[in-house]
Amino acid sequence: MDEQKSNCEENDSEPTENTRACVLCNCVDRSLHGQRELRHFGSSMERATLKPSASPLPQPGNDDLSSIGFSKSPCLATLFDDSGCWVHHWCAVWSEGVKKLDNEELENVDKAVISGTQQPCEYCRRLGATIQCHAEGCLRFYHFPCSAASGSFQSMKQLVLLCPEHIDKAEELGEDAWCGVCDSVGELTDLLFCTSCGQHYHAACLEIGATPIQRAGWQCPECKVCQTCRQPGEDSKMLVCDACDKGYHTFCLQPAMDSLPTDPWKCRRCRVCAECGAPGLLLPGSVQWFDNYTVCEGCQRRRSCVCGVCGKTASPSVDLHCCSMCH
Question: Which CATH architecture has domain 20-47+63-263?
Answer without folding.
Answer: 2-Layer Sandwich (3.30)
